[in-house]
Amino acid sequence: MIAIIDYDAGNIKSVEKALQYLGQEAVITRDAEAILGADGVILPGVGAFGDAMGKLHSYGLADVIRRSVAQKQPFLGICLGQQLLFESSEESPGVEGLHILDGRIVRIPAQPGLKIPHIGWNSLRFPVKGRLYEGIPENSYVYFVHSYYLQAADPAVVVATTEYGAEIHASVEKENVFACQFHPEKSSDVGLQILRNFIRVTETGFCG
């Protein structure tokens, strides 16, 4: 069973539906016991960084997430869920993120002809081929919806990038922690394969 963390963020149901389509049991929950007892954990989300951190703290979920990562559960952050794993965001000055990984979230730089938020399909490049991308060719397209993006402090954790006014760290992986700025649940067959690969990690363990 995969636990999908419920903190009143948007787009949670679509993640559940995608997992169910793949035959994976999933539950949307904010119950600590259910989360920590799951085979894997997903932190999805669409919304503002500061509001999301406030919700995680109010529901006691920030500590649950840290415990989940510490006990080596396979953990996947999606969109805002990736951003929250890092130190801070320009969207919400003074708000500390979960700081499970080092790096910060910055606004996509304004440029003539560049629409912000970035909404649409962009191709991925793989500086390092992560486990989520097994069986996925480079330059495959995935679906993004965001105005802010990750600048990871350690390039070694970056497993996928894209270009949109800047080089965007589109996906990271470190031990049992995985995350992506785009929405695999909205990225057609490529996205389903990414989720299928995450399910495989939950079945084999993060070193599998």
How would you describe the overall organization of this protein?
There is one protein chain. The chain has a single domain, classed as 3-Layer(aba) Sandwich (Rossmann fold). The strands form three sheets. Strands 2-1-3-4-12-11-10 form a seven-stranded mixed β-sheet, with helices on both faces. The chain has a three-stranded mixed β-sheet with strand order 5-6-9, with no helix packed on it. The protein has a two-stranded antiparallel sheet with strand order 7-8. 27% of the residues lie in helices and 28% in strands. The chain has helices spanning 12-21, 32-36, 49-58, 61-70, 80-83, 188-204, and strands spanning 2-5, 26-29, 40-43, 75-78, 88-89, 103-107, 118-123, 141-146, 148-152, 158-163, 167-174, 177-180. The longest helix has 17 residues, at 188-204. The radius of gyration is 16 Å and the shape is globular. The chain is of the alpha/beta class and 208 residues long.
